[in-house]
Amino acid sequence: MPPATASLQLAHAACDAALESIKVPLDNTQTPDLVVLRTDFISLLSLIHAATTKLALALKPSSPTYTASLTPLKGISDHVTALSHCARLFGPKHGSTLTQEIAMAATDVLVSVKALIRTFLDIEASTRGPTSTGKAGDEYMVRMGAVHEIISNIRSRLSKDNVAAVQKRLAQDHDSLDDGFQEVDGMITDRESVDSTSEDDWDDDGWSELGVDSKTRMTDEELERTKKVHAILRLSILLHKRIITDVLTVPSGRIKLSSHVVENLDSLPPQSSSLVIASDDLAATLYTPQIPSDISTELVGFITVIDSLRSTLLELIEEPSLIDQMQAMSLQTPGTPQKDPKKWFQACFAQIRKAADNLGSILNTDR
């Protein structure tokens, strides 16, 4: 077996082993500080980027230089193993949200490097010699580009700490929350446009010819329910936005958070995801014809999510260091008293509960 082929197989096996090992966290509480670990992780990405570039140049199908590929292949084998180990050093003290982000980033890199190595193995198996054209010869460029793009994105977007990782996750959910809200807002707008359209001008896109009504007009009762859900979703989006901008804006490295606070922070992403699902489920019940019992069921689920989020958030902002940071970073007019951020969140939760009770009261009447 040619040395280059053997080295390719070893590098491929190293990727497989690294992918398996990254699934098993290290049972070791004596892990390096976050700054050190993150720096090492970024450095390993740079080494993998450089090694894959050298490998692609050495094994260019049109003019491969097999001896020149041995050093970068050895480097790739070493670096992917080290990357997996580095990722496993992130643990509970660094925050589970950041740890998950690191593991996913490392996995993406390992999978892309493995695919690149696999491509070169396929080229070797199919040609055993230089080829300037062909699918295999073209694919290695695509695979190398994927490795470089993934690494570049990670290096530029990797969260600096767990707070930033939590903020990133919630920011992703926020767009989905807003999409659901806009859908409900559109229902109300559509009803208002229907009210201004005469029966003769009603356009059903020809569905009535098939015996199907594609645009059932929303009744007054249905419009009232929709507006109340609209108010609930508007408040929940405002709440979600303030969590991102007020709670999750602690400057990196400025304060040391207790393990209890870190655990509460890590509870926010799954609760945020649950809020997106509950909001979508509630909005989905508003399509005509509406079934009040379905709306009531989804409303109960929505409030359960809100109550869970309330418990986590209000406990979280009891942390004195977080309160100090929120007050310091809020835009206050010079000379005015600092506002207590906890009061705003309590008031917002109360308004959501009040809006939900208003909806519940008309749902009970409609039964």
Layout of SSEs?
Elements: H1 3-21, H2 34-58, H3 66-89, H4 96-127, H5 135-157, H6 162-195, H7 220-247, H8 259-284, H9 292-316, H10 320-329, H11 341-366
Explained architecture:
This protein has 367 residues and is mostly helical. It is 74% helix and 0% strand. The protein has eleven helices and no strands. The N and C termini lie far apart (78 Å).
Question: Can you give keywords for this protein?
Answer:
367 residues, mainly alpha, elongated
Shape: elongated
Given the helix and strand composition, which structural class is it?
mainly alpha
Give me the strand/helix succession. Answer: HHHHHHHHHHH
- Per DSSP, the total helix count is 11
Determine the mean pLDDT: 86
Q: What about the largest sheet?
A: none
Catalogue the unreliable spans.
129-134
- The total beta strand count reads 0
The amount of helix comes to: over 70%
Strand content: under 5%
Distance between the termini: 78 Å
User: Radius of gyration, Cα only, in angstroms?
Assistant: 28 Å
In short:
The protein is mostly helical.
